Amino acid sequence: MAQKLTQAQKDRFKRLIGQLKVCCLSDDFESAKVCAQDIRSLANATGERHRWLLALSILSETAIRVGNNDFAIQHLNSVVHTSNKSTRLRLEAYSLLAIAYLRTGDIDNAKKSIDNTISSIKNIRAQNSREVFYKKLVERIEEESILAGARLDSTPILDVDEVQSKAVELLQESEAQLLARIGNELPDKSINLFTMLRDSTLLQIPHQERLCLPPPSVAVPSSSIGKKAMSALKHVCWTALCDRDDELYKAWSDGLSAVYDKKLIVGAVVTALIDAKIGSGLFAVSVVAYVFKFSCRTFCEAFAPDTIMKRTRR
Q1: Given pLDDT bands bounded at 50, 70 and 90, which one contains residue 204?
Q2: How far, in Å, CA of 161 to CA of 163, rounded?
Q3: ∠ at Cα 38 (17, 113), nearest 5°?
Q4: Which of 41, 111, 112, 187 sits between 20 and 30 A of 134, alpha carbons compared?
Q5: How far apart are alpha carbons 48 and 1 in whole angstroms?
Q6: Torsion-angle region of residue 254: left (phi > 0), alpha (psi -120 to 50) or beta?
Q7: How far apart are CA 229 and CA 193, in angstroms?
């Protein structure tokens, strides 16, 4: 049974939850587990179960970010089954489950989780907040469906030297041209899954909220698909490119010459794509050429991964 918290306990919960969020955004899963365990111990001692479920959701999101989707699915299902039906916790757990299932290629369970998410959004009372969540959900499902459809059954073979050489040849092309290339290099499976999940998601959203979103069944140009693909790839490549303590980030901050010479950007992108089993050689070339268009600060700010969870507590 919950007891009235002392100010010291409130402060400790706030500090620990803050530390856990930092671990999530920095993809530090091991530290996140330690922090979550401290929150669990404090929650058990005070009866504050909802704070533990919040921590478990943040920990699960961290697991998704580092590729431990089975861990996330197991614990998010626990949040779903033990949280109150009308709470934001249940809504966010369904949303994260959809992402985790898409990451594992389990499209059927992903669709069920999306359906459950949309059914739960009505519990957000403020219309503006509902519309914001619908927008974030649709954008994230679009991104994750592109990634899910682009994943290969086997690990792609990508040569760093060849990718960099061909990427440099494309630098005279505009950003729009490179985005069109990226869109054209996506497999049909990726485009079909993107269209199917986008349309089915949009059609379930109430008419009033759907007015602020793009309509379904609209043909999407290659450049727009490419832009969405680059937005999706932030969930794969951002950490490898934007770790402030890494040699790549420091060299890129000083200009492109150092990262050209040492092939740091292309090495990071190729490794991330191989680990995620995404893309052909031509896809990698276009992605690297597009990244070359940006300064370090501009890219890392523009493509920083967002979270679907609400980060503040009332």
Answers
A1: confident
A2: 6
A3: 60
A4: 187
A5: 8
A6: alpha
A7: 13
